[in-house]
Structure formats: C-alpha cells, structure tokens
Amino acid sequence: TRGLTCERDWRVLFSGLDLQIGRGQMLQVSGPNGSGKTSLLRLLAGLMQPTEGEILYQGRALGRQRHELARHTLWIGHAAGIKGLLTPEENLAWLTALQHGANDEAITAALHAVGLKGFEDVPCHTLSAGQQRRVGLARLYLPHAPALWILDEPFTALDKKAVAQLEQHLADHCEQGGMVIFTTHHELQQRPAGFFELELGQ
C-alpha cells in the first residue's frame, strides 16, 4: 500500500499507510474496536475501495488485476462463511470451486485435519459455532491453497487445542513461502521468523 487512507461514515480510520508484505511473512493487524482492522483487510482483499492512496499486487495497481489477486488469495471473514443447509463436504466443494477445486478425498482429509471426522455429511446448521468455524478454516488445509491468506479473527469460537493447531498451521504456511495477514485479539504463542505487527488506532 502507498499512502492508504480509509474513511467510513465520515470518520478517518487510518491515513497515509505504507505497508509491504512478501513471501514468508505474517502480518498481525491489531488495534481497538473500530480502528479499521477489518476495513484494512477488506481493502487488501479487493473488496473495498480506499478513500485515498493505492494498493499494489506484485508491483502493479490492484484495480488492473483483481482477477489475478482473487486466484492467489484465500479470504476468510469474521463470520464462518458457510451455508447452514449444506454439509461440510458440500460447503467445501462449493467454496473451492471458485478457485482450484478439490476432489472428495482432499475435502475429507481437510475436514479430518480440523477435527470434523464423523461430521462430514451433516447439515452445518446442526453444528456448534466452533465446528462451523472449522468448516470454513478447512479451506486452509486443502492442497494447492493460494499463497496469500487474509483472515479476519480466525481464532473465534475455537477451543485451545484448535487454536494451537491453527497457529502452527499458519506458521508452517509462512515457513513454506506463503503469506498471512490476519486480525485477532488473541496473543500468539507460535510466530514464524517473518512475523510483524501493525497496530491501528495509535
């Protein structure tokens, strides 16, 4: 980003933000409620337009390559982002079809990886909040996952074991050359070498 400014409801959330992230790096966006954390993530994912400044992907203006960014980005918002009437398997099949797609074996393995063995074929509305969150996060365990992960409060509703597992998985992704940008109020116990933090609302 170069000189990035975001204004919502006639209030400037942040301004003049210069930010760069590369392979192997993990960026945690912190700050109090209302400081613009989710807005920044949505801007970086191409879901919003900045008030001022520009966003670049691989050195080129984002506006000219939104399709390219979408192919290389996995966005998971604050909500689980799944359909309650569909099963975990059906949700993952539908979500992955938007990018590379995944076969049945890969989907089953991803669901097992997040602790949903035995729940693959039940409607998601019957699952707990934590289990629904795991369905969405299972996308991170599929083969050929995009390099850039943008995650808004990914640890919400997870128990301690699941939190530790997700921390390790995010760190492993960075160590293998991936990139992670995320918000959380959770204090990380596992950080890759390329970890850094941006605190909004200063």
Task: Provide structural commentary.
Helix content is about 30%, strand content about 25%. It is an alpha/beta fold and about 200 residues long. α6 links the parallel β8 and β9. α3 crosses α4. The longest helix is centred in the C-terminal third of the chain and has 16 residues. The two termini are about 20 Å apart. The model has no long low-confidence stretch (mean pLDDT about 90).
Ordered list of secondary-structure elements with their pairings:
Elements: E1 2-8, E2 11-17, E3 25-30, H1 37-44, E4 52-54, E5 56-57, E6 60-61, H2 66-71, E7 73-76, H3 88-96, H4 104-113, H5 129-137, E8 148-152, H6 160-175, E9 179-183, E10 194-199
Parallel strand pairs: 3-9, 3-10, 7-8, 8-9
Antiparallel strand pairs: 1-2, 1-4, 5-6
Short summary of the structure?
The protein has 202 residues and is an alpha/beta fold. It has 6 helices and 10 strands; from the N terminus they run E-E-E-H-E-E-E-H-E-H-H-H-E-H-E-E.
